[in-house]
Write a structure and sequence with these properties.
Layout (H helix, E strand, L loop, with lengths): L2 E6 L7 H13 L1 H4 L3 E6 L9 H13 L3 E5 L2 E3 L24 E7 L8 H10 L6 E3 L2 H9 L4 E3 L10 H4 L9 E5 L9 H14 L2 E4 L4 H10 L6 E2 L4 H7 L5 E4 L2 H9 L4 E5 L2 H10 L3 E3 L3 H10 L10 H8 L11
Parallel strand pairs: 1-2, 1-3, 3-5, 4-5, 5-6, 6-7, 8-9, 8-11, 9-10, 11-12, 12-13
Helix pairs in contact: 1-10, 7-12
InterPro entries: Polysacch_pyruvyl_Trfase
Protein name: Polysaccharide pyruvyl transferase domain-containing protein
Length: 332
Amino acid sequence: MKKILIFDTSIASLNMGDEIIVESIKENMAYLFEENYCMTFPTHTPTYYKFQNVYSRKYIENYSNADFKFVCGSNLLFKNMLRPMPVWNINVFNTKVANSSILLGVGSGENAKKVNLYTKFLYKKLLNKEFIHSVRDEKTKIMIEKLGYKAINTGCPTLWNIDEKHCKQIPKEKSKSVIFTLTHYEYAKNERLDSLMIDILKRNYSEVYFWPQCIEDYDYLVDLGQEKGVKVVTPNLASYRKILKQDIDYVGSRLHGGIFAIQNFKRSIILAIDNRAREIKITNNIPCIERDELDGKLEKMIVSNFNTEIVLDANKINTWKDQFVSSEEKYE
């Protein structure tokens, strides 16, 4: 039996999208996780302080010497890891537990033009040199390879089970109801376009629901003055999953809110507001349009019939998975 360390991006996260990612990873990695001893650590909060060695050296050694350490999804990598409040809350002084980790469907964000010396040194301690890393877009693959590591663009693990058979079960025609999302981050707000999106939805659907993927997304809805005529779904995954059992479409700027709807066989239109949706569209052909173009495109797409045609490279996914099982072992 192997010891496996799972760095869980959903712990202490305010974004339900991280729960969607980790749920999908556990489902796709069941062949490995369910057959071995797994230990879980957060990424959003520090995993280890040096003074812990005094009291719990045995525990720390167990964690540090795990057979596999997986960093689970999300946009964790940046070119400057000195940035305040990094999503992967780690620094050169507390890497002992995370040393030699393997990326699992991880993406990257833009906060500098190139990787600085501090970040190169940090990644040298963190990233495994023996195994191939799984990244979710081509941009991140290039970044990892330029740093001297091996990587495969497997796409996001939230999409790994959405094959052609799955896509054929997703409606082509619009529903009478829609559920939408907003993104409250300052860089992502566009009051004119976000209000226009909601107006278009109210005009084209009999029932309009809103799911706050982050609690502050609801505050943004109120700031827009658009809460009238909108039914708010509780911001947790159970409530979202329940509403998706209805005949309903998805429209919105939350990437993984849209992917979760696709997982649940719902016709979805994701609005790209940053590089995450754009890069995953290139790799996996998610149904996505630019928010800046919604004035001319969104209503036309809503009333038209369209197929959901997610593109997967099963060979790349299986090549990456095969690293962790012997030739006698199999996964479903």
